[in-house]
Design a protein that fits this description.
The chain is mainly alpha-helical. It has two domains: 34 residues, no CATH class; 151 residues, Nitrile Hydratase, Chain A, CATH 3.90.330. The chain contains eleven helices and four strands, in the order αααααββααααββαα. Helix 4 crosses helix 5 and helix 8 packs across helix 9. The chain starts with 24 loop residues before the first helix and ends in a 26-residue tail after the last helix.
Length: 230
């Protein structure tokens, strides 16, 4: 899809950016609302921290990565997942609030899939944890539909010209999980080892699965000088 005019760059969540320490305006509003509710005794800060910790560290992207790694390793599981994701995910215990009505879409050499929620930030929490800030941003929600290749390029993903890009609009009725392509050079890897190659962004479609260390190009080590000054 073609972009409309000069678009602003995507707000990635890199912590080394000088503005990364400043919360966005929506975050400031949320924090202000949270402060008011805490002062009125309507919410418990400890309970909020527990919810956030649960989604970040216990049922976060590692659940989705486990599903992807198993799909790469087990053709029967993969076929069932693509045909009826809800049933398969429920059997694994990956269901519940924000995880209803799941559809898994597979990346292939012919088609790359990418997920966005154009209205708000619908997102499969039980599989991917808490959505990143950029996923909820106006820029991503608008430009992912209008100029998906440009957005992917800003995430460092450049696809072959012959690979089409399909953008899926996640809603409260249907949420999507991208099944990234299995990287080359991983045929001998066990399912547990494959987990490390699957990132949150690759399951949204804004990244590719990582290459195994053995498939990465060698780096050139600097010459040793045995401590001598040159």
């Amino acid at each position: 899809m073609a972009g409309l005019g000069q678009a602003a760059p995507m707000p990635h969540d890199h912590s080394d950016h000088p503005h990364a320490l400043l919360p966005s305006e929506p975050a400031l509003r949320v924090k202000a609302l949270e402060t008011i509710l805490v002062r009125k005794g309507l919410i418990d800060p400890a309970a909020l921290d527990e919810i956030i910790d649960t989604y970040q560290n216990k049922i976060g992207p590692q659940n989705g990565a486990r599903v992807v790694a198993r799909a790469w390793s087990d053709p029967v599981f993969k076929a069932a997942l693509l045909a009826d994701a809800d049933t398969v995910l429920a059997e694994l215990g990956y269901y519940g609030r924000q995880g209803e009505h799941m559809v898994v879409v597979e990346n292939t050499p012919e088609q790359h899939n990418m997920v966005v929620c154009t209205l708000c930030s619908c997102y499969p929490w039980p599989l991917l944890g808490i959505p990143p800030g950029w996923y909820k941003s106006d820029a991503y929600r608008a430009r992912a539909v209008r100029a998906p290749r440009a957005v992917l390029a800003e995430f460092g993903v450049t696809l072959p010209a012959e690979t089409s890009v399909r953008v899926w609009d996640s809603t409260a009725e249907v949420r999507y999980l991208v099944l990234p392509m299995r990287p080359a050079g991983t045929d001998a890897m066990e399912e547990e080892d494959l987990l490390a190659l699957v990132s949150r962004d690759s399951m949204i479609g804004t990244a590719l699965a990582a290459l195994p260390a053995a498939a990465l190009p060698p780096t050139t080590a600097p010459p040793t000088t045995n401590g001598a000054q040159t």
